[in-house]
Amino acid sequence: MSVSAEVNLPHVLDAMTRVFERYEAALIANDVAVLNELFWDNPLTVRFGIAEIHYGAEAIRRYRELFVPPANMPRQLRNLVITTFGETFATADVEFLRDGDPVGRQSQTWVLFPEGWRVVSAHVSLLT
Hints:
The structure is a single chain. The chain has 3 helices and 6 strands; from the N terminus they run H-H-E-E-H-E-E-E-E. The protein is α+β, with helices and mostly antiparallel strands. It has a 6-stranded mixed sheet, with helices on one face. Strand 3 (76-85) and strand 4 (89-97) form a beta hairpin. The longest helix has 20 residues, at 10-29. The chain is globular, with a radius of gyration of 15 Å. The termini are far apart.
């Protein structure tokens, strides 16, 4: 079976791009409700942050509600690569720049569930 015909189907790539843009806007605004919504609500969800590790949606929610910096932390994105596989699986990888910080990297794995696209795994790191 060849998967190549199913990579980046235009309608799936467009939908995933809009979801990624919604996630990015929520991140900049520190919109915790949207950030929590866009992560899969499951104990198997994983998020490795710059200085923290979270196993399970509940741990990710606690982090977002208690420890995330305030809103309006703008950043520039570069080298965004969104790749979709079939209708229900995608990855999003991007570099980000914030004043005074080293280059950051963000990788996300997304799955389309009945309730919509959700991050099932995420990793954020800084080049030091």
